[in-house]
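Reading a protein record of the kind used here takes only a little practice. Think of the row as the fold of the chain written in a discrete alphabet. A record is reproduced here so that you can trace the correspondence yourselves:
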Amino acid sequence: MGARSSRAAIIEPASSPTAAGLSPRSRRGRALRVMLVEPDPQYQSLLGTGLSEAGFEVAVVSSAEAALEEMAAPQMPPHLVVAEAALEGMDGFLLCEKLRSEMRTALVPVLLLASKREPFHPELASTVGADDYLPKPVRVQDVVALARLKAGRRPSEMAYEAHSARLPLAQIARALLAGARSGRVVLKDSEGFFAFRGGYVVDAAFQGERGVAAFRRLLGFGSGVYAVSFGPELHRGSLLMDMPFLSEQVLPALERFEKLREVGVPLAARLTVDFAKLVEHLATLPDDIISLVRLFDGRRVVRAVLLECRFAEVIAYEAITQLFSLGVLMPASHVEERERPPASPSLFLTASDALDTMLTDDAEEDLPIFVDEAAAAAAAANAGGEAKETREEEAVREEEETIDGEPLDEDSLEAASVPEAPAPRRVPIILNFPKRPRVPKGEELQAGLLPMGPEGPRVSDKV
């Protein structure tokens, strides 16, 4: 216990609100305050310690009268009241009704704990305005989860928002099933929800699945902001899961799954099959595992495979980890690097590009065998063009001297002396096909290859 006021024992928070994972909306620069009304010293210690370790300041009293006296002080009322229903004198139901009748405390959330549960208690708790009713024995983590969800919030809010990083879905699911309320939890950023009613999960959907598998995958893969809304869930559900099944089957498997995520293959890893290793270990693998191996096509990540396979997530994840350790599954990036095709050759080279290639160190390997022919063709084309230009110049000079036997005047000579625009130079294009390996004639006939004849044109001098 910490410091004491005149009426209550104060337990200071053992951690900051940030470290405890409280929502930023609930933090106002200081710890949120919880009023614990509990006559049992054991529950006082357990609940007080658990709430303080979660970042709450806890004021502990033993009776409803002491709680009302504490809240009558001029200081701010608590952000949450956790009270035993079967108190001596004024019980927890009357205390909740009294708080709702006072304007100053009308919006304070109230959780009622019942050491002696009666069939009419849940309905009575709803009538007096309690936020939830939890029968004992109650887990401290369930009370802490509900406190994190509701402390500092107004009961009139349509939905209580939280984040899975601060309040995991598995924790809030168990806490909601410990109570008597009905409602649903909806993920904000993906298609997923589960509905609860009177301590049962009655419906769940996630990534196209419905029922128990959807609920498991929602707890395992759901993340981000979610909203908890309270109200009647009257539609017909797809399952009926109670607290024992959740505690004994679902949550232990989820705990194994989370531990495997810390040491196993990352969920974002993209894997493919090493068929040589698969053949080596095929005799020792169960037949059902082959259907799991078929899903690894080099494009799916591990998370997508877990969502598509028909096995439970933790069993499939353990099998994937084992297959990876055997080498049957390997990163797809390794196969892509090993089987990456060579760079495609350029099909067209100009004479200048061919000359640049000849000047490189690897010219003998990179240059096609017909570059010499291309250079010779380009030289012949240039020589033919120069001879043609010489003949045209002589004809122009003869025409300058006379036209129809008459000498030209000065104006005509000037007009005739204007040179014509030079013809554009033609640059040959070289087809740069990759070299074909030499094959003996016997193998050519056997393989159906026809040798290329030397008479075929290899160089085009047309642009």
Remarks:
- Residues 371-401 form the longest helix (31 residues).
